[in-house]
């Protein structure tokens, strides 16, 4: 059975998308997500990468989007970049207690992005993968172990229903280009992020879980340049191939000059046309 395809952007709060570049003139900032969510089916929530968000924010974002909209949530850089996946039981509890579960049925996959300095370390990866909750109830149970960084009035440790959770890993060090890494992802059911970065980082294209996760960082340089018609045609063919038996999430991160939302709409149109 064919999988579901979600196309969107990496974030939505960009000043250079305003004043008609993508957001209409006069659109107030609090309605930018609402506007974008009527044109694409998903978005990567990247504020969660920089700091712990609030439950009230997650509730507001969910309320602003259509019923079938999905958020991918980017894992905190404290976990991936500062701690580099070491000793992260409590940081993970804080992350999942910060309000993420308030998204309920709109909660999509988690994106864990490793920095370029982090090399392949199978033991460290396996330990981290074992800590990741695979259902919303597991995540709620983990969230109960948050520390004082999240006082009770700022924490959210419940879920209305038990839903499966997906996790994807984006790597940026050349040492990950080895079969053993892909085998490890498959063994733990972790999706490999297919990351197109205009040659900046290694490009790996294997599907290692029951879903595919694509990030398009730029056509000519990192975060720069619109994708050409021919380039989008090629990506559409790849997405169709993956979606034959996998769900697919694809996000444009070429945010400079508002290329990302326009490219997301263009790719979605190609897929809608079959």
UniProtKB/TrEMBL annotation:
Signal peptide: none annotated. SUPFAM superfamilies: TM1631-like. It comes from the Bacteria. PANTHER family: DUF72 DOMAIN-CONTAINING PROTEIN (PTHR30348:SF4), UNCHARACTERIZED PROTEIN YECE (PTHR30348). This is DUF72 domain-containing protein. It comes from Saccharothrix lopnurensis.
């Amino acid at each position: 059975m064919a999988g579901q395809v979600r196309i969107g952007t990496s974030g939505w709060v960009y000043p250079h998308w305003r004043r008609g570049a993508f957001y209409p003139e006069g659109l107030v900032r609090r309605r930018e997500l609402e506007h974008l969510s009527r044109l694409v089916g998903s978005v990567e929530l990247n504020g969660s990468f920089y700091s712990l968000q609030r439950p009230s924010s997650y509730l507001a974002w969910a309320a602003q989007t259509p019923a079938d909209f999905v958020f991918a949530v980017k894992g905190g850089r404290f976990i991936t970049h500062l701690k580099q996946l070491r000793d992260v039981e409590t940081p993970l509890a804080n992350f999942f207690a910060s309000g993420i579960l308030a998204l309920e049925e709109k909660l999509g996959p988690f994106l864990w992005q490793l920095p370029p300095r982090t090399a392949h370390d199978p033991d460290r990866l396996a330990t981290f993968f074992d800590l990741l909750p695979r259902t919303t109830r597991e995540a709620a149970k983990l969230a109960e172990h948050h520390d004082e960084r999240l006082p009770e009035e700022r924490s959210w440790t419940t879920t209305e229903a038990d839903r499966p959770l997906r996790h994807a890993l984006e790597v940026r060090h050349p040492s990950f280009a080895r079969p053993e890494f892909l085998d490890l992802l498959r063994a733990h059911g972790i999706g490999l992020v297919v990351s197109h970065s205009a040659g900046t980082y290694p490009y790996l294209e294997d599907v290692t879980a029951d879903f595919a996760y694509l990030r398009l960082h730029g056509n000519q340089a990192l975060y720069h340049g619109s994708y050409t018609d021919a380039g989008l045609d090629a990506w559409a063919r790849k997405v169709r191939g993956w979606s034959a038996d996998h769900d697919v999430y694809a996000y444009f991160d070429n945010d400079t000059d508002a290329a990302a939302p326009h490219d997301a709409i263009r790719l979605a149109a190609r897929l809608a046309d079959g």
